[in-house]
Amino acid sequence: MGHGYAFPAHPHHWPPPALRARRHSQMIWPMSPRSNNHTPTLVLIPTPLERDRLESLGDPVGKPGWTHLCGFGPVAAAARTAELLARLQPARVLLIGCAGTHAPQTHPVGTAWRFDSVAIDGIGAGEGDQILGPEDLGLPQWTEQGEAVHDRLPLEGGDAGLLLTVCSAAGDKPQAERRRTRFPEARAEDMEAFGVALACHLARVPLTVVRGISNAAGIRDKGEWHLDEALTNALALVREGL
Q1: For residues 121 and 127, what is the distance between their CA atoms, to the nearest angstrom?
Q2: Bridge partners of 142?
Q3: Cβ neighbours of residue 86 under 8 Å, at least 6 residues apart?
Q4: Given this model, what pLDDT does residue 2 score?
Q5: Are 240 and 59 in contact (CB under 8 A)?
Q6: Which residues of the chain have pLDDT under 70?
Q7: pLDDT tens by residue, 51-63
Q8: CATH homologous superfamily for 40-239?
Q9: Is 208 within 8 Å of 62 (Cβ atoms)?
Q10: Could you tell me the residue ranges of all domains in the chain?
Q11: Quick check: 207 and 91 in contact, CB under 8 A?
Q12: What is the Cα–Cα distance from 167 to 48, expressed in whole angstroms?
């Protein structure tokens, strides 16, 4: 299992002894928003809802002027990230927000994770179980100097498995199950990470993605969501490397 976090039941015991020990034993996380590098980390948050919830939890994630919204969905996220990369020229990027789990046994609702790779669903021809992706069609989304990007990209600083980016969140359990059939290694789904990752890949800027698990993929009843718990743990996971 990869690096995840669930906030302790007793906040006055924060940080727990194991985490205090790890802070001294681990190297500094390369995506630390408060790195000593001259160029700060660009922190991206998809929506105002996630930003406001994160801000309500205490100190800001990034340095003043270096935390921005990237937008809702992969297209807005890619375009906004490309614009910010060109204007700010950060040394690294951190994307933080929520996701829906496809693996509740290992990535349960309320926890947070740093993912090691991202894929995108829905690019190609056809739909559902019959969809042909970029590699099936022999049409990479991007190719440069022999390097082809089909539907997957690596991420920095994580080991929690594959995050699946979608244009529309799973609307019910059957749709979520169909996605798991096509991407059996997917641990969670979001709507921005691949767009951000492609923009960062083209700009040669490393990206780390931290997602709090707010709900099970396919569950649209927000009464079953744990948004605050998920973002609390996502923020704790980001600060773990500080």
Answers
A1: 10
A2: 149
A3: 203
A4: 57
A5: no
A6: 1-3, 5-38, 241-242
A7: 999 999 987 788 8
A8: Nucleoside phosphorylase domain (3.40.50.1580)
A9: no
A10: 40-239
A11: no
A12: 18
